[in-house]
Write a structure and sequence with these properties.
Oligomer: heterodimer
Number of strands of chain B: 22
Distance between the termini of chain B: 48 Å
Number of strands of chain A: 3
Distance between the termini of chain A: 23 Å
Largest sheet of chain A: 3 strands, antiparallel
Radius of gyration of chain B: 39 Å
Structural class of chain A: alpha+beta
Structural class of chain B: alpha+beta
Strand content of chain A: 15-25%
Largest interface: A-B, 21 and 23 residues
Strand content of chain B: 15-25%
Helix content of chain A: 55-70%
Shape of chain A: globular
């Protein structure tokens, strides 16, 4: 059974971003998603930070303060092992959702 | 999310958002946007940090708790802003809760606490009723009740006497103690088990075997320091050694024996010679209690004993027209406190009503005035639930503060009550705050607050924000609500009126009781009591001799004017003696008259300061050998010698020998006295009852009634307290084993009689004061609000040329109208309650016009006074300002 919810989708994007960037601060995650999706997906800060903090609470990401390249301090997030497992299962789930929606749309 | 880590996480989040904002700024600058622009552009792109923070907090799940805490902080801020209002509400709550909690604690300590006996609900007290007055039970009567009843499991007869008790081995530290005389059934009925040792046995109820005693726990502690070897030690009662055989728990209340304090010592009930014989059937001096059979009701038992009493009345003439009364032991506890306590309950209920209506009015006004604030908040996005929650929190905070203060007040009041008059009102010694009472009061206060705070909240939550804002805050849609507020104030005034009248009546009663002419001179008078035990003073002769020697010694003390040994003095009553007037024979026993009787010495009238209005006083020439004389009071003359000169009439003391062989006091003898004089009436049935006929004779001339019980009266030239010790010393020197007890000045003695009434008056007066205070606050609140609402109107009037005095009158007349209405309703209430007050009053009617008039004037004056400030403010309104502001 494919589970589909918006919050889950955002989590997926964040987890994937972090898995590819190793570690990044909130703003950076935002910009990455925008750029890679070609401005198609613009995540609101109001959704990003609650999601990040929720995932931190659930133990999927780990946070720490560090200095950016420009010398400013920021909070950097990185995936934990549990996070990686979540990412794997959510990627699988997403594939199923896409397949299911596709099938319904193509039904003549 | 643990709330104590909340602040830290929140600070962390703030830093994070700020740092990310700066990053965005950097990005913008990189894209070529100038510095200043960059910051704003970043901000715009970023979004609303506050909103983001809120949403993150939601994600944390701590939002609920944060909102509550925020509401509380807001509530406190609001309270600080309108300090006057908050203070008033808290004060009103505190006063109401404090007053109620204190009084209900008193009530529960005195009325409601269950008796500490096993089977307390089956215990009853049995008294005989003669001429409608309760008297004790006689021995033969009791025995018949025991043998013929069908409803009692146990019945016990008992008595108490003042005896000289000494605990030291030498027997010289004698003190007068009320000693209980009880049979084993007495303790069995009460279900009392001894802490140590045993109870009396049946054989110890016989003369000669009865020198055993039981002492209470407290007595063991104070007089024997809890000596573990107490059993078998000796206690001296009336110069006779008694062996202590047991220690009782200190649970037998003193009021069973008509005493203030618990009886510390008990001896076996040994009937005097002939107590069980027929001749003593008229001797009604004993107490009796009974334990009903399980499942038996008081009604059935009453019917059973009445049936027996009727049979006795038919068979024994001395029992005719003597009834029997059974009362559950629990109701006997309070005595004459009961009606006063019920009055207090009523007063406290009134206060609660006043306070609640006050709170209601205040809260209504307040929340109505805040319509604008609610509208603004609504416009800014507050939901209905948020508004209601806010008001709930504010109300709760106020209630909690008020209740807290009220609890402190209540604790202080009960503490003060407990320490002021411990001895005089013994039940108060166990006073403590009753938690049930507290709970109820808290609930009532909270309930009122919530009820009258929520209503406007719900109303405002429904209102259209735009309309409310447009009207500019003068949302005077409370036309009907204003009326409701006015009604509340009128009710408050009416209730205060009733309290005021009640307090006024009670205070005047007290004054009349204390200041009435008792018929004798109260100043510079000492009284004392002593008892000459028969072992040392076996004959009336020895008693007379000791009394004479005592009087001689006291008379020569410096500062003593007069001294007399007596057995009566006003306002106490004395023995009831049956008599017959020579030349007026009586045929039936129930027609034999009784008079208040006492024996005195020749100096009595002089010492007490009672003048002789006819004939002569006693004199030293009236001796044992001369013909016995008597003096009667004016009431006696009015009753029995209306058209005849009483001087020279001969009276036979005791019931006529032809009708009954043995009289209660005179035994088988009779003594005839000649009336030699008439004394002026003086109170002889306590302070409140009218003067009864009284006859006094000399103890040396009527040896049959020259008992060992004697009182001494000393009239002094100096402050009487100074002589108390000297007088006691004289008796001690005569006989070291005779203590002089109950030594006090006559003023102290009389004061004791009115203690309870005084206590209640003080409390009632303070309640009236509190009620007045609350009424003042209520009136002030309403009038001030009215002025605020009508500021524009008043401005217009002033601008159109109305004189300032007209404005003052406009405002004051509102208050006056409310006060008049309240006073009128209060008067009606007073009239309705008059009947229940009558039993507490003395010398003044419950509908006393001057009191009611005075109370009305006071209330109206206070109402006008409460209007004064708002009226003054109204008159000072600058018309230009008033018209310009909304």
């Amino acid at each position: 059974m494919a589970k589909n919810d918006l919050q889950g989708t955002l989590d997926l994007l964040i987890l994937k971003t972090l898995s590819q960037l190793d570690s990044m601060h909130g703003y950076g995650i935002l910009m990455h998603i925008r750029r890679v999706s070609d401005e198609l997906l613009i995540v609101e800060e109001g959704s990003l930070y609650p999601a990040l903090h929720r995932m931190e609470q659930q133990g999927w990401v780990r946070a720490s303060w560090a200095v950016t390249d420009y010398g400013r301090k920021a909070k950097w997030y990185a995936l934990t092992r549990a996070g990686r497992q979540q990412l794997a299962s959510r990627e699988k789930n997403w594939a199923q959702v896409v397949k299911g929606v596709d099938a319904v749309l193509r039904f003549a | 999310m643990h709330w104590w880590k909340l602040r830290k996480r929140d600070a962390d989040l703030e830093r994070e958002l700020r740092s990310d904002l700066e990053l965005e700024e950097e990005e913008q600058r990189e894209n070529g946007v100038p510095s200043e622009e960059a910051r704003y552009a970043a901000r715009r792109a970023f979004g609303n940090p506050t909103l983001i923070r809120e949403q993150t907090h939601e994600a944390w799940g701590s939002a609920q708790f944060e909102r509550c805490w925020q509401d509380v902080r807001y509530a406190l801020r609001q309270m600080r802003k309108s300090l006057g209002f908050s203070a008033v509400v808290i004060l009103v709550l505190a006063l109401a809760i404090g007053a109620n909690a204190s009084v209900f604690s008193v009530l529960s300590a005195v009325l409601l606490r269950p008796l500490e006996f096993r089977n307390a609900d089956r215990l009853v007290q049995i008294t005989s009723m003669k001429d409608g007055k309760p008297v004790g039970v006689s021995g033969p009567d009791w025995r018949d009740f025991v043998t013929q009843n069908q409803t009692f499991e146990k019945m016990a007869i008992y008595d108490q006497w003042r005896k000289n008790v000494s605990t030291s081995s030498r027997g010289d530290d004698a003190a007068q103690v009320l000693v209980g005389l009880a049979r084993p059934e007495f303790f069995e009925a009460l279900g009392i088990q001894p802490l140590l040792g045993r109870l009396f046995t049946a054989e110890e109820g016989l003369e000669g075997r009865n020198h055993v005693a039981l002492i209470t726990d407290t007595f063991w502690e104070t007089h024997y320091q809890r000596d573990p070897k107490i059993l078998g030690r000796t206690i001296t009662i009336n110069d006779q050694p008694y062996t202590i055989v047991g220690v009782l728990p200190a649970t037998i209340p003193g009021w069973l024996h008509g005493a203030q304090a618990q009886l510390p010592v008990f001896e076996p009930f040994v009937p005097g010679p002939g107590l069980w014989s027929e001749q003593s059937r008229g001797g009604r001096g004993n107490g009796a209690i009974g334990l009903l059979k399980p499942g038996m009701t008081v009604g059935k038992a009453q019917a059973d004993l009445t049936r027996i009493a009727d049979t006795l009345a038919a068979t024994h003439p001395v029992d005719r027209e003597v009834g029997i009364l059974i009362a559950p032991l629990t109701t006997m506890r309070t005595g004459d406190l009961r009606s006063l306590l019920l009055l207090l309950m009523g007063a406290v209920g009134l206060i609660l009503l006043i306070a609640c209506s006050n709170l209601a009015a205040l809260l209504l006004a307040r929340n109505t005035a805040r319509q604008r604030e609610f509208a603004v908040r609504k416009a800014l996005g507050a939901g209905r639930a948020a508004l209601i929650r806010q008001i709930l929190t504010e109300t709760l905070v106020l209630s909690l503060l008020g209740s807290g203060l009220g609890l402190v007040l209540a604790w202080g009041a009960t503490h003060a009550l407990r320490t002021t008059d411990p001895g005089k009102i013994p039940q108060l010694m166990e006073l403590s705050l009753d938690w049930r009472v507290l709970l109820f009061i808290l609930a009532a206060g909270l309930g009122t607050c919530l009820l009258f705070g929520i209503a406007p909240a719900l109303w405002s939550a429904r209102l259209n924000a735009i309309d409310a804002l447009k009207e500019g805050g003068r949302t005077n849609s409370g036309g009907s609500r204003q009326g409701f507020r006015k009604l509340l104030v009128v009710v408050q005034i009416a209730l205060s009126m009733m309290l005021l009248v009640g307090a006024g009546l009670l205070i005047q009663t007290l004054e009349r009781l204390e200041n009435q002419d008792l018929g004798f001179r109260v100043d510079h008078l000492i009284r004392g009591h002593f008892y000459l035990p028969p072992a040392q003073y076996p004959t009336p002769d020895t008693i007379t001799r000791l009394c004479d020697r005592f009087m001689e010694r006291v008379r020569v003390l410096p500062g003593v004017r007069e001294v007399s040994v007596t057995t009566v003095y006003p306002p106490r009553d004395g023995w009831l003696m049956m008599f017959s007037i020579q030349g007026r024979p009586v045929s039936r026993l129930e027609d034999v008259p009784s008079t208040i009787f006492g024996v005195v010495d020749a100096n009595y009238l002089g010492t007490a300061g009672i003048p002789v209005v006819e004939g002569r006083d006693f004199s030293n020439s009236d001796r044992e050998t001369t013909s016995p004389v008597a003096i009667v009071n004016q009431a006696f003359v009015k009753e029995y010698f209306t058209d005849v000169d009483p001087i020279g009439q001969r009276v036979e003391l005791g019931a006529p020998a032809s009708l009954v062989a043995q009289d209660v006091w005179m035994g088988t003898e009779r003594e005839t006295v000649t009336i030699a004089g008439v004394m002026r009436d003086s109170h002889n049935q306590g302070l409140a009852l009218p003067v009864a006929p009284q006859l006094i004779a000399l103890f040396r001339q009527v040896p049959k009634v020259n008992f060992g019980f004697k009182d001494v009266l000393v009239r002094s030239n100096v402050a009487p307290e100074a002589l108390e010790h000297a007088v006691a010393q004289q008796l001690h020197e005569l006989d070291p084993q005779l203590p002089l007890s109950e030594v006090e000045t006559m003023s102290e003695y009389l004061d004791d009689m009115t203690t309870v009434k005084r206590f209640t008056s003080v409390i009632l007066a303070s309640f009236a004061g509190v009620g007045l205070l609350l009424a003042v606050m209520g009136i002030y609140g309403v009038i001030a609000y009215l002025v605020a609402q009508r500021t524009q109107e008043i401005g217009i009037r002033l601008a159109l040329g109305a004189p300032r005095s007209a404005v003052v009158w406009l405002v004051s007349s509102q208050g006056l109208r409310m006060a008049l209405a309240g006073v009128a309703i209060g008067l009606v209430g007073t009239v309705l309650a008059a009947r229940s007050m009558t039993s507490l009053l003395y010398g003044i009617s419950a509908l006393d016009p001057p009191t009611m008039g005075m109370a009305s004037i006071v209330l109206i004056a206070i109402a006008l006074g409460a209007c004064a400030l708002p009226a003054k403010r109204a008159a000072k309104i600058d018309p230009m300002q008033a018209l310009r502001t909304e």
